[in-house]
Each structure stands twice: as C-alpha cells, then as structure tokens.
Amino acid sequence: MASSVPSTPLLKDELDIVIPTIRNLDFLEMWRPYFQPYHLIIVQDGDPSRTIKVPDGFDYELYNRNDINRILGPKASCISFKDSACRCFGYMVSKKKYIFTIDDDCFVAKDPSGKEINALAQHIKNLLSPSTPFFFNTLYDPYREGTDFVRGYPFSLREGVSTAVSHGLWLNIPDYDAPTQLVKPMERNTRYVDAVLTIPKGTLFPMCGMNLAFDRELIGPAMYFGLMGDGQPIGRYDDMWAGWCTKVICDHLGLGVKTGLPYIWHSKASNPFVNLKKEYNGIFWQEELIPFFQSATLTKDCTTVQKCYIELSKQVKAKLGKIDPYFNKLSEAMVTWIEAWDELNPSSSASAEVANGPAKAK
Fold this sequence. Notes:
- The chain is α/β, with parallel strands linked by helices.
- The protein has helices spanning about 30-35, 65-70, 90-95, 120-130, 180-185, 215-220, 240-255, 270-295, 305-320, 325-345; strands spanning about 15-20, 40-45, 60-65, 100, 105, 165-170, 195-200, 210-215, 255-265.
- Strands 1, 2, 3, 4, 5, 6, 7, 8 and 9 form a nine-stranded mixed beta sheet that branches.
- Helix 9 packs antiparallel against helix 10.
- The radius of gyration is 20 Å and the shape is globular.
- It starts with 14 loop residues before the first strand and ends in an 18-residue tail after the last helix.
- Residues about 1-5 have low confidence and may be disordered.
- Keywords: Cell wall biogenesis/degradation, Glycoprotein, Golgi apparatus, Isomerase.
C-alpha cells in the first residue's frame, strides 16, 4: 500500500550526524527511527586500537586518532585528544550543508503529552526558517505555525536573516558546571518550555555541544571546539569557546542563532570532582573571556567566516595571551584549524562570501 511507504526524511542527502565517542554506540538503537536514513560521522576519542561497535543498519564512517593524524598530518595538532572537542574533526571532513551533533549519553525525550520528540526534525525546522537577531519578537519565533510578528515590530525587519545555528536543550541532567553540580547533585530539569527564540545581536550565550545543529556552509569554519583535554590546562569549555566565537561572527555577518526546542534526554551526570579539575582554570578565565567577546569587533574586510576567524585569532593572541600562555597556543591552533579546513574544503575557502554580508549597525 502506498500509505505504508515512509516519506523521504528532510535533508536526507544534505545533513551529516556527528558523534564523538569512546564507547560502543548502543544508544543509536533508540534513535534508529530518526537517524537511520542519515549518514553518520563517528569520531572515536582515546585509544585508536580499541574497536568501537556500531549497531547494524547505519550508514557511517568512523575516524580515530590515527585517521586524524593521517588526514591532517602536522595540522592534526589542532584537534583535541581525550576530549569531546574532537567532534569538530567530523565537521571538517563532512561534505554536507548541515551538521547535527549529539553526545552518546543523550536519548530520545518525550514532550509533556508523552510523545517522542524527533529532535533532528525540529533542528532542521529551526535551520530552515529565518532568525530575527535585530529586534526581539515577544511571541518568540514569529515563523512558527500559529504565531506572527507583534504590533510595533518593524516591517523592514520581518523578512529575517538566515539561521546559522540551532541550539537544543535537555531534560533530566542539566548542563551545569562543577560547582553547581556539587551543590545541587540531585537536581533534574523537568521543565519543558515549548518555545524557540532568536538570541539577539550583541548577546552571548553558553553553547552546549551535545544537542546542536548548524549550517556548515554558513558558519562551519567558526565551529572549532578549541584545544581541550589531554595536555591542555582546561576542559569542558570546548563548545563554549565555539559558541562565543560563532556568535561574534554571526553578529558581524548578519546571521541568526536560535535556541530552545528541541529537547533530548540527557541520561547521565559526569563526575563533578573530575569536572572541577577540568574546569578550574576556565572558571577564573571566563570572567575575562566573556568581556573580551562582548567587546570584540571585526572589520568590514572580514567578509567570510574564515577571514572573521583569523581576525578573531589575532585578537585572542593580543588580548588574552597575557592571561595565560595557553591562549597564544590556542590562537595558533585557530589559524591551523582554518588552514586545515580550507585544505579539505577548497570550494568553501576565502572566495565564499556570506550572502547576507556584514551586518549593518543597528
């Protein structure tokens, strides 16, 4: 019967799912109805001699540290080791327009009615609808069915801009830092807020990488998760670093970032004492990092994501290098990342101007 034939999944041939992992990917069984039509890029962290098992029936490619070293050569130094930041290697080797990335301890959540949430479909919906970073709509996302722009919203801004990032949330285990984990060990997020909103221009946010989608062609080169983990003085700030850099560049180029739906179910809390050791420097440094990004400006010459990112790397060295020598090293890694990105993605390099162009001052 014709009705039993499933409809073609949205963006089936235009989206890759990137998963960083150190373990067998049994969690994919729960996601099978939603992920099986798509191509997976699995980035194996840790010991490359260990064999990671992937359930049958998934279309995937798997990269370990040996593959990263082989593909990038000396430039592999920019990819973190023993940290989920290694996931950004998957963004670099993908050839698709869109990326969805998820952690292996994230399961399918249910909405308040008990219906399973197709997180990937909601991310796609977010990315394919415009954003409104220049003027806040009090009914949140005006492009969602059943809502619109409110009275007083300028008609000249109602067309919106392209959405570069869709940032999803989590039920159950909240995404807390170690001090908050320690004082609230039993806290669980049970609040399901049925909303999506555009983060306004000039406003930073703490980006979580465990339930995230983005337009790789629009913003991919800025999605570098930094130098974290093994051999580095900081961890658990990889997605945060990428989020701050990305938001500054999106604001400059006139691109949008959405947050809210979809929710996933975050199944297990990481050890707060281990986390504290990883975050210790970051907790101090963020008090200077955030003002740095809040005041960062890019010149009119920065017309591509790559140019923006290189300019940002120079500012990191000039202004953050005095905090700790790590930031000089990170600045150099940011440049290496862009060089490696352009080597693997020659068609997306310097000639690819962002369609919206640098944002006009508002």
